[in-house]
Specification:
594 residues; alpha+beta; five-stranded antiparallel beta sheet; 14 helices; extended
Length: 594
């Protein structure tokens, strides 16, 4: 009998244990796609790492001892002004998604979808945290990828139910059973006789999940020519444990995973999401391992036509394989570029534009600091023959003293001061700051963008500011388009995964049941991002319309416009009361009419 045993790390599991497809993919095939895309992926990782080093001011300065090693954070200063300007339009309103119908038939469905999307983002997720991470990732790394998934969790709890028995109705005066006059039989009533406990399965979570992916842990098809819709596969790696995999309920073959030899540190291609990557759990249930999730297309029926599927493995063990469970049958990733590059799926951040400016500013600033730092400022020199021993001691004690008559005191005493900074150095700093602000379009309270190139006039200044706002608006438009794509995916998932009687809380008193058949997402709905500025503009236009036409407009139309204005002003209770208001008729007018 041989003493050798098969190593679980080298034995690949067969996909036929999970699916009954005619042509299931082998693990070697999926790993081959991953390995082939690693070269292009590593190029992107190196670029982002370099941009983040510029953002953090992480630059090695080979300076002599005693010289300055300061690295100014010019890119970080520009980014800090970007964060609030780009995130505030999304966070300044509770109704982020504004759904409008293409036709009047879709009005009710559009309103329900918008209501549901905004409720899920405001009440079921951490909206502020997601938007901040969404915007900051785009500004820092140049590309943000959001994984749109679905969370479903059930739990068993004990509930109490009443024990109801049917008993005859007894007359309290006579003690005799009461006869039903219609049937002639004794009247029966239901009486609670006690309580009983029952274990019931309830839904704890049934909602979309949005995850901003780490650029290290997502490998995309490099042949998609800059369009993720054309990507044939995407591999996403994440940290998990045996306990989490069992709790999820979708994974199998968990007993075949070798948790003893598996380790997060053994996967150098995956970026650990903890501050201390050396920390690991020792017990099997909580020990972290790396799982890789492959989303792509494969000829699973051996007919020559590919179908979307998903497969997950840990080490060499398949733990999940099924057809794409999402209704749109697409990759569950939304990619947004901060500054797009032609035919490239990844974008660029501002740090890629102003890296050279930051280096020049750093070199000049270090030179200025060295000039000041190497001076003996505050030290005072005294000519040797200016004071005798007695008066020198008085001088040191701060007392009145007498100097020698043959010495001019203006030449005998010298105070060291900071040297003047060369004007050329300040001009170089100013020039580099102006150039950086011109490249990024950020006006950060320095002498930067101005209208002088267009003439020192109000028109020139306004043109420069308009150019800056258009630059920022272009970035904001791309971020908004990414959120629109996320909203459309969530709409299709709501139609597939929500229960028929999913209740959405509207106000403290009213509840509306959303019918799943009305949330298909296949009809025409215009989905856009609602901002406080846009709502303010719409409200002002409606108010002006009401002001100019109020005297000639019928009362019903005025009521409709007022309800829309209240809704745009974020007063849903007032909008509801205005829409449902019915004027009471005047009794005197009714009598006069009769």
């Amino acid at each position: 009998m041989s003493d050798t045993t098969e190593d679980l790390d080298t034995v690949e599991t067969d996909a036929s244990t999970l699916v009954d497809w005619e042509n299931p993919p082998a693990l070697a095939d999926l790993k081959q796609d991953l390995d082939s895309a690693q070269v292009a992926h590593q190029v992107h990782v190196d670029e982002v790492d370099a941009w983040l080093r510029v953002l953090d001011g992480d630059q090695t300065i080979n300076a002599k001892r005693g010289r300055s090693k300061l690295v100014p954070r010019l890119a970080r200063r520009q980014a800090e002004w970007r964060y609030a300007a780009l995130s505030e339009p999304f966070l300044s309103t509770d109704d982020l998604f504004n759904t409008a119908p293409q036709t009047f038939e879709d009005k009710d469905s559009a309103v329900q979808n918008g209501m549901l999307l905004n409720y899920q983002l405001n009440c079921r997720m951490d909206k502020v945290s997601f938007i901040d991470e969404y915007v900051r990732t785009a500004v820092d790394e140049g590309t943000v990828v959001v994984r749109v998934g679905w969370e479903f969790e059930e739990d068993k709890r004990k509930v109490y139910e009443d024990i109801i028995e049917q008993q005859p109705v007894v007359d309290p005066n006579t003690g005799q059973p009461v006869v039903d006059p219609n049937t002639g039989q004794p009247a029966i009533q239901e009486v609670k006789t006690g309580e009983k406990t029952k274990t019931k399965t309830i839904t704890v979570k049934n909602q979309p999940a949005l995850t901003v992916c780490d650029y290290n842990n997502l490998v995309l098809d490099p042949t998609c020519e800059g369009d993720i819709e054309k990507a044939n596969f995407a591999v996403y790696s994440f940290e998990t444990s045996l306990s989490e995999l069992k709790k999820d309920g979708r994974y199998k073959n968990l007993d075949d995973i070798n948790f003893e030899s598996a380790s997060v540190l053994a996967e150098p291609d995956h970026a650990v999401n903890t501050d201390d990557s050396s920390f690991t759990f020792k017990d099997k249930a909580r020990k972290k391992v790396i799982a890789r999730e492959y989303w792509g297309f494969w000829d699973i029926d051996d007919t020559g036509e590919v179908k979307p599927f998903v497969a997950t493995w840990v080490g060499n063990t398949f733990i999940r394989m099924e057809e794409n469970p999402y209704p749109d049958k697409k990759l569950p990733f939304i990619l947004v570029q901060y500054l797009p590059r032609r035919k490239n799926i990844y974008g660029e951040p501002d740090a890629a534009l102003i890296e050279d400016n930051q280096k020049i500013v750093g070199a000049v600033t270090r030179g200025i600091i060295d000039i000041i730092g190497r001076s003996a400022s505050g030290q005072q020199g005294i000519r040797k023959d200016a004071l005798d021993v007695t008066n020198a001691r008085k001088f040191e004690r701060g007392e009145d003293y007498k100097f020698n008559a043959n010495v001019d005191p203006r030449q005998a005493f010298h105070m060291e001061v900071y040297p003047e900074i060369p004007r050329s150095a300040l001009e170089v700093l100013n020039m580099q700051n102006n150039d950086a602000e011109a490249l990024t379009g950020v006006k950060a309270f320095t002498q930067g963008i101005s209208g002088q190139a267009l003439g020192v006039t109000a028109t020139g200044i306004r043109s420069a500011l308009d150019a800056t706002s258009k630059r920022e608006l272009g970035i904001l438009r791309r971020l908004s388009n990414g959120l629109n794509q996320i909203g459309r995916k969530v709409i299709s998932m709501n139609a597939e995964f929500l229960e028929d009687e999913e209740i959405i809380r509207i106000t403290n008193e009213e509840f509306i049941a959303i019918n799943r058949n009305d949330l298909g997402g296949k009809y025409d709905i215009k989905l856009n991002i609602s901002t406080a500025e846009a709502d303010e503009q719409k409200g002002s236009e409606l108010a002006f319309m009401l002001q100019t036409m109020g005297n000639t407009m019928p009362g019903e139309m005025s009521q409709m416009v007022l309800a829309d204005i209240a809704k745009l002003r974020k007063m849903p209770d007032l909008a509801k009361r205005i829409a449902e208001y019915q004027p009471q008729p005047d009794p005197m007018a009714q009598q006069k009419a009769q």
